[in-house]
Amino acid sequence: MQRIKRFNERVSVALKSAGRIFKKTKLKAIPPSPPPRPLPKGYKIVERYPLYEPFAHAAIARNPVTGEYKYVLDELRLDILERNVYDRILEILLAEIASPETEIEDPRQFFVTEAEKIVGKYRISLGWLPDVSWSKILYYAQRNLVGFGKIDALMRDQNIEDISCDGVERPVYVWHRRYENLETNLIFHDDQEVDDAVVKLVHMAGKHVSSAFPIVDASLPGKHRLAVCYRREVTPFGTAFTIRKFRDDPYSIIDLIKLGTLSEEMAAYFWICLENRASLMVLGGTASGKTTFLNAVACLIKPGSKIITIEETAELNLPHENWISLIARRSYGLGENLTGEVTLFDLVKTSMRHRPDLIVVGEIRGSEAYTLFQALATGHGGMATMHADSIDSAVKRLIQKPMDIAPAYMPLMNVVASIQRVHLPQSKAGEMSAYRRILSVDEIADYEDYRNTFTWKASGDMHVSNLKNGIMLNVITERSGLSWNELMAEMKRRENVLRWMRQRNIRSYRDVTGVITEYSAKPEEFYEKEVLADAPAKNS
Ligand SMILES: Nc1ncnc2c1ncn2[C@@H]1O[C@H](COP(=O)(O)OP(=O)(O)OP(=O)(O)O)[C@@H](O)[C@H]1O
Ligand SMILES: [Mg+2]
Q1: 295 lines ligand 1 (CB under 6 A)
Q2: For 477, which of 25, 253, 347, 415 is 20 to 30 Å away at the CA?
Q3: What is the pLDDT of residue 57?
Q4: Whether domain 2-244 has CATH 3.30.450.380
Q5: CATH match of 253-481 with 3.30.70.640
Q6: What is the pTM of this model?
């Protein structure tokens, strides 16, 4: 209900914001069709797929000489007549569409239904146009008023991970799952156009951007992460933005196993460690998959645990009922007067008063790390990601300002997983070439005493374990009274449960959590009745 309400608010904010921009610039501010540049000279299309039939398609073009790839967004265009009607109907739609009064599931669908009714009313007075033209006009109205504007079609491309605009008169770039960084044929031609587009995006995220506050991090509807540098205040090239697209269907731990990011044995190890309140830190470079991994591994947290997530922009999405999500807030004061600011540090501090079993910090960068370690010291479980390329460099940063954690506190972070984007030797261009792999899992026994438990071997693309090297499982045997062999048998059983899920394609976030819950409640019974009884799983 709350979510729907937020959607409703966002539709009206998007409409209002688009309306203001529209009126301010006398009908020309929301160009209905971008003038996409023709296919670059010498390029040939190697792949074409629909983004939104029949209006938008993506084409991947390749220069056979240089081997370079480009992304061509191919949208149906409006002719002059359609464009004129579009301009007039847009004005009518803005005046006549009221914000939804009842709860609606899908704001876009709401807009389309209302717009169709209004178009029906004015259709004749606006001059005759075939149905095809009207659907194109409505497509552009939807795209520009309640959608993401010029980049709307890109937002529909499941292959795109990031969309970035580096400034005015510079091509928009995308990060494509199969072709990596690609220049697109989209360009914002002047400051006004990109500024308006960004103001609208920021308003859709329920935030404010201006020359006084030119840096914004926000979460767009659909949980896409938006980062903005507005106007030429902080960048000489004009407004720049980057969107990290959120998958409609987030990767679960089973998806990551299928993708080869981690092995079933490793997932079983994390399952046992997390159940025993081990703390976990995920390290990696930009876009290496830290947040995705953290989110996926969270499926393995004991059902019923009270979890508090703390982030700068909302990215984590947990299936647990007993979950509080806290998001930091910027201040709109100037200079020293940062009234109203709520930092990650404040949130970690306050979270301890909510009696969490587990505190998850989206990304640690500053003094909140210190508070997180304090929380670990007082017996809370903790998980976090950190931008670092190795355990050594992470620990070096943790012990320096502003994190300032005493080296003696280091073993409070029990397990460290390092994730990276890797290129596999056999990958060819056009096939998915960038893969994410957990390169190593280490346990922190003491400051500068790290025990490696898993390593990824590039040759053979496999994970090799060395569990005896670690200390965590020994600690668990001591605490639980299980012998090493008994604990290994339990781990094997969980590995089989994970394999059984993979083979039965039980992969969605909710389904995986459902199995984990059932297994936690009655491990033996569930294992015998479901996993062992299932012949294909047994034979593999
Ligand atoms: N294991 C994986 N396999 C394939 N794609 C992945 C995997 N993990 C993440 N991705 C994709 O990579 C992109 C970046 O992922 P994510 O946001 O988790 O990275 P990050 O390391 O948290 O980035 P940042 O440093 O910007 O916070 C997303 O589009 C996500 O869908
Ligand atoms: Mg992240």
Answers
A1: no
A2: 253
A3: 95
A4: yes
A5: no
A6: 0.87
